[in-house]
What does this fold into?
Amino acid sequence: MLIHLLYDWMVRADVLVAIHVIIALAASAHIVLTKDEPHAAVGWVGLVWLSPIIGSGLYYTLGINRIRRSAASIMGHEEAKALDHVALKQLSQAGILPDPGMRQLAHVGNHVGGLPILSSNEIQPLINGDEAYPAMLAAIASAKQSVMLSSYIFDNDAIGAEFVAALKKAKQRGVEVRVLVDATGSRYSFPSIIRPLRQAGIKCARFMPNLQPTRISTINLRSHRKIMVVDGVIGFTGGMNIRQGNCIKRNFPSPVQDLHFRVVGPVVAHLRQAFIEDWVFTTREQLAGEMWAPKIVELQEQQKGILARGVLDGPDRDFEKTLWTILGAVGAARRRIRILTPYFLPDATTIRFLCVAAMSGVEIDIILPEQNNILPVQWAAMATLTPLLQKGCRVYLSPPPFDHSKVMLVDDAWTMIGSANWDARSLRLNFEFNIECFSHDFAAQMHDIFAAKLVNARPLTLADIQARPMPVKLRDGVMRLMAPYL
It folds into this structure.
């Protein structure tokens, strides 16, 4: 009897080993063929072989990008013609830009972005929810045809209730309203905002519900975009979610500083494009017809207009477009680079680009929050800063409240605004939306905002980094190894 049991166990073990080998071989082949970075490939292969079945399951769940989306339904023929008419001014030869570095950067974006640079735009920075939310609510109140609203977080709180009420009134006026909230972001408040939206009769959806068994492989792929488009004419985008903490002056708990932007002009069509891609992907509803069409409105005084281009980024056909844009911007810099971001975990290539720029004489200033709202990210960031400080980059820590703003400035003519952070989650996993702006006037305005934040920030020196106690250095170093997953 014992011999039979032992034999049965050996047979089953052989079967399990055979299954493990077959699955591991298949997973390894996929890793070798699809992973661009050797260290990532080696890490996944090691996990697959050294953790039988479990390693392959983790790779299937977290390591494979399965997002494939079609853009065929995004724009109708007439809309594309209208946009192309404006795009004739898009610097296809980059001749309008007097600065050679900006012409170089425009060409990088032409190759990377896939969208045209459009002239005659107006972009207004809105500081914190105190300025952004009233402007957004006023735009909803003025809507006559359509409102598209997408947010990573849309909290069911006092501010969320104001937005639901405004959207409900717009719907009652006959305005078509669509609201898209990321499934993970919708759970930042309980109960979620989805129920109040549906009770108000507003068509809404969650982007990639990740608790469904069929969605487990996309659990890491979130829509981090913040976009609102009203009547195809007025747009809002930036880094700001919809939650009461962003209203600093109203003294809500857990205050958060942030920047958002009101956009008018042809580039609003790029905001619209990003929303419709996500909406069609999520709901399969085609948003076609006049009420959803972009209105290509050019400013009367074109000399004051901003040249701008939307940068759609995500783990699909738009993979790493923001990262390539950042690298192009660092490479094009001649005088200074300014970076404002809440989460700073750049990869080795980006760090080298910044170091080379600093060694070539480019002034590089980076503002990070002194107290991050995600401690492991703060620890990992501390372990990332040493080579930058060694090569001459300057790092500053801004005092509370936590600053969630995201801006990159190059020289005095180029600015990137939007939703992306300087971390792997934003640059490789999330769906993000940014705008690159070619304008001396707008850059000067954003330099002023950056300088105002710099006044209250304290410099972080190489001596500060080196003076950390050994246990803290070890903790930060371990977290740095986890940077691709934070």
